[in-house]
Amino acid sequence: MALARARRSDSGMNYWPGFVDALSTLILGIIFLLTVFVVVQFYLQQEVAGKDTALSRLNAQIAQLTELLSMEKSSKTTIEDQLVQLRATLATVENERDRLKGAVESAGAGAAAAQGKVTELTGQLEGEKKISARALAQVEILNQQIAALRRQLAAIEQTLDAAEKKDKESQARITELGQRLNLALAERVNELKRYRSDFFGKLREILGNRADVRIVGDRFVLQSEVFFDTGKADLKPEGRAELDKVAGALLELEKQIPSDLAWVLRVDGHTDVRPIVGAFKSNWDLSAARAISVVQYLIGKGVSPQRLVAAGFGEFQPIDPGKTEEAYQRNRRIEFKLTER
Fold this sequence. Notes:
With 341 residues, the chain is α+β, with helices and mostly antiparallel strands. Helix content is 71%, strand content 9%. It has helices spanning 2-11, 16-106, 111-207, 237-256, 283-300, 325-331, and strands at 213-216, 219-223, 263-270, 308-312, 333-340.
């Protein structure tokens, strides 16, 4: 009797402000984590996009410089060919001059004409030498331009290597952040599983080893007959008594679960496959109404509405596909499932 009075006293305490603060802190923490991740990913993507644009510009500059280098090499080859021709012409003129000088020395007659020819050829020779000097100067300028182009190409290649390295580092950082976020979410799920196991164990201890109470996977299952009459969604007095026990366990659970862990208790209503008879249009309406009745009663007992979800599944998720009365009774049920929000 004393234990019963203590339990009734505990269930009368108001934990609502603490639950609201815990929920607010949890939502703010999750929003903060998601905001940080989105901002980091946005800046990393912007940086990678900028590097891609710079890489495209550098590739275009390389193509232009390569084309210019090809043109300069072609021009250099042409000038070198002209230089070879000029040198050959120069050698021919020198040979002709020497031959004419020999002719002047061997023959006295026509010496003046020969000397004039020699003078003319000498002038041509000087002109050819000047042309050859200009060609050599142009070749030297081309060599300097080619060397400058090669230095520019080397600098561009270094820039490209640095850009590629930074891009790989950015991608690696994005991958690392994603892995860390997935690990944090997995830890939250495992923590919720532990509290769900404790909650189900507490319910089993409170409700006792009844035949109409079962644990199926991650759900706590009670037969609908415990709470409702056939075809109705109004809680029976004995059903309210059982829900008082569930509410007490749920209020105690809210104290234990950390405020930054998002969770809800989902109340699922299920019916058998036989057509509904009564005030409801379908089994789906009946199952939803029953789930809502349970949720509203738990709220009346002090459970936070933010921690409750009502869902109706009608006859579409049976746990026993049989057509016997026993199978129908097993399918008419109310399920409690502690899950992440």
